[in-house]
Structures are given as structure tokens and as C-alpha cells.
Amino acid sequence: MKNDNRRTYIVAACLLFLLLALMTAIDMALPSYHIAIKVIKKASVYALVAVSMNLLNGFTGLFSLGQAGFMLLGAYAYAIISIPVDKRAGVYQYFDGGLVQFSLPEFFSGFLGDTAGTTVGILLALLLGGIIAAIFAYLIGLPVLRLKSDYLAIATLGFAEILRALFQWKNLGPLTNGSNLLKSYPDFENATSYVILIGLFIAVIVLLVNSSYGRAFKAIRDDEVAAEAMGINLAKHKRLAFVISSFFAGIGGGMLAMYMGTLQALSFKSTMTYEILLVVVIGGIGSITGSVITSFIYIASLEWLLRGLDSGTFLGISAPGIFKNGFRMAVVSIIIMVVVLFFRKGIMGDREFSVSRMLKKMDGLRVRRKKPRASGTAGGDGAND
Amino acid sequence: MAETILSIKDLQVNYGGIEAVKGISFDVPQGSIVTLIGANGAGKSSTLRTVAGLVKPSSGSIRFMGEEITGKGPTDIVKKGITLVPEGRRIFADLSVLENLKIGAYLRKDDIREDLNWVYSLFPRLKERAWQAGGTLSGGEQQMLAVGRALMSRPKLMMMDEPSLGLAPIVVRDIFNIIREINKRGVTILLIEQNANMALQTADFGYVLETGRISLSGSGSALLTNEAVKKAYLGE
């Protein structure tokens, strides 16, 4: 048993190392504007936001549609605090250079050196975005979390839309630049940093889900009354799940702003929430690995692999008459419908990809090949990303 | 008679304008099995839900081990040592049997291994199925899991809401045998049942509830032979 565990860890570590090596190789081989790098960056951001939404919708059973709003908060917090001071006059040209005259990455590069200082500044700015999103979630949660199912969804959706309108309001211009773009804030050049950072955040969520808090969340999802009768404080735990989910959505929003290069409140429409909900549902409600895998498949197909459907040539077939603007979305809709029809519970259901289970399956195959009477092995736990 | 562990005085509970419990008073002696019997809508479940803190009473008082607990929330009440096995079992269907049991001990910070072993020795079937999802268990096994889950909070008073509901007679007998065994370990039991025969045979003391009021009380054996009870609840 102990040996089995150790082997699982070794294989998982090897897989992680391989992934990192692959990422570094991709980063070195391709220029930073290459579509593959873009896809990896955007998909990893979507993976984080989808997992954070899954924590709420899949593990705690709270149907919330406020994700885009919390991402907006994180994105703006990140951008506002990291634009270099000398560029502010240009960015906030209609608002006299804006209210904030301070840049976190610049502040740290002052005494940590350029590379390290900027990295630390970026990380802290992202965290700040997460914290602001979490504070808003706490305040909004006080009234809104009393609502159930669809009502909660409508209230959170409304909150996100109001927030977006508010950020475009002219009178908040000195802070948010109104409906104008925010730009010139720093970004990680390589995709590896995105993958490492998002991997760490998702690992934290995995630890949370497997802790006793995670168990309480799942109990609330399964049966609220019974959970309450067991002494679980419903209001407190729902609020906790909501705040943590929003915290990571805020960080995801900050990273999305980084990836996009320019930031505008208009991008954070409810369509974005629906896109993430789609990833969560197709990946499997209650499956973290499902959300991650689906984010990569979804973003890669949408942004890259199916592009040809819009531009005339797809898979070597040239048919400009059919393959023109908008056809890609029609195909995507059909694929989604087919997936939902054939995988009712999503690609992964509520299961997780687990290294130990994979190893056991491989052992099973090997044993079966040697002698026909294979011993059935029970599915072990211990999800590894 | 032994010391009183739970004492209810003039308890009134209203549900959205309906008076479910109209001022009942009764005592539960420490270490006993007490049963409340009565027809549907007599107010049995409402009484238990109020003691568990899931519903707030409109008036009256509930004292547990001499301490006023009226109007306290379920978290405090579980901490004080009262637990509820809810009607219809209500186990967590997607959680494994072990996770269900751990949720029962959610508020405890000490070592739960001893209690887990006790629950497994009461219900060996749960140990065999520890990794199975709760929803895949049979009705009887789910009832065992619901009882086991409640015991994991190490209660002084365990309240059971219709544990025999929808179970085969042989399983019901098992469950009642285990209720006696749990009681022997010092857990006081407050049981409500429609299966009055089984409940009165097991209980030391019984109360008959009719439309929100207590109409009769007495020892289990006395109520079993009472003409009115026989007619109304035992079908004789």
C-alpha cells in the first residue's frame, strides 16, 4: 500500500516535470505572439475561472452567475495598480492622468531589480484583485445568499451587470477610465508562468475541496436540511464558498486582463459567464479535472483549430462560399449540442483524473495479459492534477 | 426516576400561520428511551425539529441538562450534545459512507476513531461499504448510516424521526435492537414513530400526541394495554 502511494507520487511528479519541460520547450520554440502561446494563456485563465465556478456550482450547489462581475473587479484592480506611472497621462488622457499615481510592479522593481520586482509586483497586484473581489463577494453575499437556486442566479447575474455599467460610468473615470481602454500594464511574456501560477491556484482549490470544509460544502449540496441538522452553519459555509470562489475569479480576471493586453468593462458581459458555465457543464459539474481539460479543448478549438471555418479553408477543403464569418460559431453550437446529448453528465461526470487509478488500470492490463484471471482492483482516491 | 435531561414546557410552534404544536410539556429522563406517538400532523416532527433548532418556537421553553436552549441555532445545539436522525434518512447521496460519518463529527475537534469503530461494530455493513456512495445503499442500510452519522457527534440525546419509515419488518426489528444497544451505552433516546407497537415495546415511557397536544402518557407497557391507544394506534 505504502509502495503504491510512493509510486503514485513519483509518477505524478514525473508527469508534472514533463509538462513543465514541454511548456518551457514551447515557450523557447515559439514567439510570444504565436497562436499556441495565446491559446495556452487564455485556456489556463479559463481553467482557473471554471474551477472557481465549479467550487460554487458543482461542489456547494449554489447556482451563481456572477463570475464575470468578480473577474471584472479583479481585472480592474490589477490594471489600475500596475500601469507604470509615466504612462498614466497617456492612458487616462480624458481624466488628467487619473486618480492613482502609483504602480506596484514599479515600486518593487525600485529595490528588487527589474525582473524580480516586476514579477513580485504583478503577483501582489493579482492577489489584490482577488481580495477586492472577495470583499465584494462577502458584502453581496450577505443579502444574496439567502436566495435559492434560480433566484440566486438572477441576483448574481444582475450584480455583475450593474457592476459593469458602474465601471463605465463617466464620474468614476479618474479611477476606471470610464468606457475608455486601460492599457500598458505589464504581462508575463511566456506561457509557462501562466501555467505554473494557475496550477498553484487550482492546487489550492483541490486541497480545499478535499479538506473537511470541502466535505461540508458537498454535504450542503447534497442535502441542506441534513447538513444543518449535523450542525453545519449553512450561512457561514455558503459565504465561505462564495468568497473563495470570487477570490479566484478575481485573480482569473486579473490574468485575463494581462492576457488581453487592453482592458474594457465591455468585455465582461454575461456572455463570458455563460461561456465559463458551458466549460463547467461540459467538463462535468463537480469535476475539477473536467473543467481544466474542457477549458483547453474549448479555447483551442474556438480560437485556433476551427478558425478555418471562418476564413475559407478548413482541413484543406477550400469552400469560401460556406466557410465564412460566423460559420465557426454554428459548428461550435452543433458540437456542444452533440456533446451534451451523448455525455449527459459532462466529459468527466463527477470523477477526477487520478494518477493512482491510471496506474492501477495499467497494472490490470499487464496482469490480464499474463494470466486470464485478473484481480479486480477497487478505484483508489487521491486526485492528482 | 432518574434526572431529567430534556424538559419541555408549554412549547408552541407555528408554521406560516398554522399552529403545529399547541403548548405541550413533557420530560425525558436521563438514560431512558422515550417515545412520542401520534397520527400524521399531530406535531411530532415539529417538536423534534424545534428541539434540534431547525425551527424557532413561538413560545415555551426547552431546557437541556438544566440549561435553557430555546431558540438556539442547530450548530449550538449539536455542540451541546443533541442530535437528530431526520425523517426519511436524508443521507448525503454523493458522499461516501465514510464521508457521511465524518460529516456527523464535523463540529468535533478531537479524535473520532473510537466512535467510528463503535459505529462500524454496530453496523458491520457500513464498514464493508465505507467507500461506496451513500446513495447506492439500500433503504435499511441508509437508515443505519443515518443513525451512525448521528452517533458520530457523540450525542447525549439522540432524537429519531420515524426510523422505521418504509423499511421491511425484519429490518425494523434490527433497527430497534440497535436503538436499545445504543441506549445501553448511555445515550438517551427520544423517538417518534407511527409504528406505535414497536415504539411502545422499546420505550420506557411514552406520550401520545393528538393535534398538537399531549392526550395520554404512561410507561410503554401501560400504553400498550391502554384501550384508547389500542383502538387508535394499534389497530385492535
3D structure, described in words:
The complex is a heterodimer of chains A (385) and B (236). With 385 residues, chain A is mostly helical. Chain A has a domain at 37-269. In chain A, 70% of the residues lie in helices and 1% in strands. Chain A has 17 helices and 2 strands. A two-stranded antiparallel ribbon of chain A has the order 1-2. In chain A, a hairpin with a 2-residue loop joins β1 and β2. In chain A, α2 (35-59) packs parallel to α9 (191-210) and α9 (191-210) packs across α10. Chain A is globular, with a radius of gyration of 22 Å. The two termini of chain A are 21 Å apart. Residues 372-385 of chain A have low confidence and may be disordered. Chain B has 236 residues and is α/β, with parallel strands linked by helices. Chain B has a single domain (4-233), classed as P-loop containing nucleotide triphosphate hydrolases (Rossmann fold), CATH 3.40.50. Chain B is built from 10 helices and 10 strands. Chain B has helices at residues 44-51, 74-80, 97-104, 113-122, 124-128, 139-151, 169-184, 196-202, 220-225, 227-233; strands at 4-15, 18-29, 33-37, 59-64, 67-68, 82-85, 157-161, 188-193, 205-210, 213-219. In chain B, the strands form 2 sheets. Chain B has a 6-stranded mixed sheet, with helices on both faces. A 4-stranded antiparallel sheet of chain B has the order 2-1-4-5, covered by helices on one side. In chain B, α3 runs parallel beside α6 (139-151). Chain B is globular, with a radius of gyration of 17 Å. The model of chain B has no long low-confidence stretch (mean pLDDT 90). Chains A and B meet through α10 and α11 of A and α2 and α3 of B.
